[in-house]
Design a protein that fits this description.
The chain is 25% helix and 37% strand. The chain is built from eight helices and 23 strands. Helix 1 packs antiparallel against helix 7. It starts with a helix and ends with a strand.
Length: 378
């Protein structure tokens, strides 16, 4: 099993090397950077779900639900005494928080998806309908209104003794359930320039983006302000065609550059190595020590007609198993393209380590200073 795990790891790494070599890491600018100011905006609102089949909030425990029902009825001309509201026993209503993402350039009348989550003690939102809920932005203004039947893809049924549940029944979605009522203005190239923000800040990638744009539209069109942004001057001839100019820039290919990293997740045994990770010559000894302690309980029965008492005797067996550790010399020789990940995988595979063993080995190699790259532990 250990040999199989190591061979699987080697095959996965070698496949990654072949894939990255063939692709040459070329990516479109639109996949590496986004225009400054072109972004989504988060919306939130408080609403009520009705039509539940006895799975709503308990009115005596969720007082905010009772208050919301009272306010809703008052807006519709139905006045009920506050004392009577506290004695209502309705289980078909639930208070919820409604959230949505307002995409850039969304126009009035467009529809967006809304996500709904329970606030009170409702056991399920299945079959419910969201009543008209204003969705506000960070500035407090209403930008959308959500309403409609809820879909949750889950159920929860049962009684006092047993319950059957599938997925998560207190969170759901309303596809296209929010109607945009207000827009967020976006200034696109109003000052004659654009700023691209890199998703992963890197000086080399920012410089290459600027060089690719200059090669297409002339030297001086783009300038890398820092590792995370590139400023682009819109040519005079294209000031009236900003959309076409942005579209042409987004489709330019750039060879992205990344830092050497090894990412490990000990909980799942996952290891991901970047192609630029290199190791200096280092010796690694690998071996496992297993300590097994077993407790056996035996009953000591006295002889017949004796005055002895029955006793429980506990015996302990301790066994220690240690695999032989072999000192392996990992001598990393730089390849033609400076890619040593294949050699690293081959050397570690020779040790016969499992992915979880490899995580410990990587941590020790990093601590020794022999790993030239960043070790990230999730």
């Amino acid at each position: 099993m250990r040999r199989f795990s190591a061979r699987f790891f080697l095959a996965l790494v070698v496949f990654g090397v072949i894939f990255l070599t063939d692709a040459a890491q070329a990516a479109r600018i639109k996949d590496l950077a986004k225009l400054h100011g072109v972004r989504s905006n988060q919306l939130i609102g408080y609403g009520l779900i009705t039509g539940l089949n006895g799975s709503g909030d308990d009115m005596k425990k969720s007082l905010f639900t009772t208050q919301a029902i009272y306010n809703m009825m008052a807006r519709n001309g139905i006045i009920i005494d506050a004392a009577q509201m506290r004695n209502l026993k309705m289980k078909n209503i639930a208070a919820v928080m409604v959230t949505a993402q307002l995409p850039p350039f969304a126009k009035t009348g467009a529809t967006i998806d809304a996500q709904v989550s329970s606030v009170g003690d409702a056991s399920s939102l299945a079959g419910g309908t969201l009543l008209m809920t204003p969705l506000r932005g960070a500035d407090g203004e209403v930008y959308a209104v959500a309403q409609g039947p809820l879909t949750i893809g889950a159920f929860s049924y049962g009684g006092k003794a047993a319950r059957a549940q599938k997925n998560h029944p207190t969170v759901g979605n309303i596809p296209g359930g929010a109607l945009v009522e207000n827009t967020v203005p976006v200034a696109l190239g109003n000052d004659g320039s654009l700023i691209y923000q890199l998703s992963d800040a890197d000086f080399t990638t920012a410089t290459r983006i600027a060089e690719a744009i200059d090669a297409e539209y002339g030297v001086g069109t783009a300038f890398p302000d820092d590792s995370g942004s590139v400023k682009v001057t819109i040519p005079e001839a294209l000031r009236e065609h900003v959309v076409e100019f942005v579209a042409s820039i987004e489709n330019l290919d750039v060879q992205a550059d990344t830092a050497a990293k090894v990412v490990v997740n000990e909980r799942t045994g996952t290891i991901v190595m970047g192609k630029d990770v290199r190791l200096s010559t280092v010796a690694v000894s690998h071996g496992n020590l297993s300590l097994v302690i077993r407790e056996n309980k035996e009953v000591a029965q006295p002889n017949s007609f004796s005055q002895g008492e029955t006793e429980t005797i506990t015996s302990t067996d301790v066994s220690v198993e240690e695999e032989e550790g072999e000192l392996m010399l990992l001598d990393m020789k730089e390849g033609k393209n400076g890619v040593s990940i294949g050699e690293i995988a081959s050397a570690l595979n020779a040790i016969g380590a499992t992915p979880r063993d490899l995580i410990a080995i990587f941590q020790a190699i990093k601590a020794s200073g022999s790993m030239h790259g960043e070790l990230i532990i999730l």
